Fold these 2 entries.
Entry 1:
Amino acid sequence: MAISADILCGLSDTHVIEISPGQRVHRQSVSAFTAMQQAAQAAGHHLQIASGFRDYHRQAAIWQRKTDALGAMPADTALHEILRWSAMPGASRHHWGTDMDIYDPDALGADKLQLEPWEYANDGPFGPLTQWLQAHAGKFGFYWPYARDLGGVNCEPWHLSYAPLSAGYQQALTPALLSRVWQAHPPAHLGWLSEHVESLFRRYVANVCPADSIEN
Ligand SMILES: [Zn+2]
């Protein structure tokens, strides 16, 4: 069945359900995530979702806030710098419900979650969880689309993707579809986004690591 444009771009939430307080994921990823969570628990890791589904309007608000902070006339390079960390509205993998940012609340203690690479490094608070996931996540269908910096989105060791669903979503999303959604729900810097949609799509959407470590 074709995936609707509304679901691909975060304008619908009919495909997600709440998996933990305040966090929603794709209903067809719940059993795989829960199985992985239980296996992690048995190995002594408290795997939790820091951020699951996020809709278009939320992503548009993030984009608005970040671009506002640049002042009246943001340079091309400044907008690209934002896109290294934040997706364009409509192009976030979090819209799909197949992707989630994870952490271990027990390892965090009283500290605040930063979602920074050092926290997930071997000697960081989530080093043990990350090492466990590197050995086991693939068995449950999960991988890291931002495992390495490919010149688009920065390395994000907290961002997992459920390949059995997200591979199809990634295929279905196109620059033309994004442009249509932007026309209907104009984000900040609509002109700049529209003008560069093809190259932005290549650099920040299509340019992700493959799910080559998935075993099933
Ligand atoms: Zn993420």
Entry 2:
Amino acid sequence: MIGGGFGGLDVCKSLRRAQRAGRVQLTLVDKENFFQFNPLLPEVATGAVETRHIVYPLRAFCGPRGIRFIRNKVRAIHAETRTLSLHNGLSLQYDQLVIAAGASTNWFNIPGAEAHAFPFKSLMDAIRLRAHVVEMWELADQAEDPEVRRQLLTFVVAGGGITGVEVCASLMEMFQRTMVRLYPNVPASLVSVHLIEAGERLLGGLQEAHARVAEGHLRSVGVKVFLHRKVAQVDKGRVTLDDGAVIPAHTLVWTTGIRGPALDSPWPWPLGRAGRLKVDEHGRVDDGVWAVGDAADWADEQGRPVPQVAQGAFQTARIVCHNLLAESEGKPKKTLRYKDLGYIVGLGRHSTVASVMGLPISGSLAWYFWAFYYLFAMVGFRKQVEVATDVFKGLFVLHDTSQIHERRRMLRAEDLDPELGAEAQRPLPPR
Ligand SMILES: Cc1cc2nc3c(=O)[nH]c(=O)nc-3n(C[C@H](O)[C@H](O)[C@H](O)COP(=O)(O)OP(=O)(O)OC[C@H]3O[C@@H](n4cnc5c(N)ncnc54)[C@H](O)[C@@H]3O)c2cc1C
């Protein structure tokens, strides 16, 4: 199996009985040696939850279950010989392959985006963003030119889906609770967070009432929400929108969308929507090859696309495990009847919107639900305790602003250009 994320681990769990009965032997290959709990990445990026608390070592998951774990990156798949090429020239033979390699950032070919924006998919992305955000405050503390300061303290988030909304809410909470206290020399009036969304509302695909609550909440904490706008170009220190407006900023967080996973070599099969692997109604890509979760272009029984969320990964993983075993025994295979169990959008302390089995909840009640649900969903008791401690502690203490990242990769004071900020000051009329 490729990938030890939500889908991959669920495949391991679902094949447990067959594995115990000696019917299957499992090998998991992942380029990282840990599982990461993505829903808490915004909290990690803002120092509300400790970095290591949202990851679980894959060897500790695999060892007790008798699963062979290989920490390596799959570079190419040779379908005709049923072989995976790994890094360092190694190769691995398979009988059946389940691809659970997740997704990659979709830059939509926007000029400069990949070079200058911050992707927000991995733990490293969250660590990098936290270090960069803190660096902006450090430089702003030392800068004298107000335009340079304003540019340093302007944070742009592209994409008003769940992740973009959560990142904005988390950044604002960090700034208002922690940064303004730690940086008394930095005028709070210069700080701004812009959320740019191409659609007509935030949280497209979720309940409209929740989109309104989320937008109202973000606006009430000072986030500038711009709808019907797209990022058209990104340059060092400036973000240009499709209507020509320029936002002078050194921080653009890219949460606009995802595409299928990428190997070093092209996939040996045709790809579906957004570069995801095409699967049939049973999750089969090819003879002996299956795909689950974000990596696959799945549709349910009624032809509706399966969303790229954790429950999509769980449900496709379970069907694939059933079908993989059924096929080997000549039994009938199943199609996916996708059940939408709901969603949770964290908007900061005591503010959340959620839909639980279609029932909308918001406010403090939803926040407690958010906290308990995530604790329950964490892999491993130790991680549950650690995250619980962080969430509880967060009610009383400031965010952790330690910059744990290579400094040589950060923006430096000498990179700042006062002209850039002044020249590009064009107010954005709201739409
Ligand atoms: C910031 C963020 C917040 C999110 N919040 C939520 C949320 O609140 N609720 C929700 O339901 N969903 C959320 N999601 C989406 C959810 O995380 C994904 O839908 C889910 O992780 C998909 O599971 P997966 O197993 O397909 O992929 P992943 O969980 O991404 O796992 C893919 C695995 O494959 C490995 N891999 C990739 N390529 C290779 C390779 N070439 N070789 C070896 N290993 C490889 C990766 O290292 C990774 O471990 C969020 C996602 C992000 C990024």
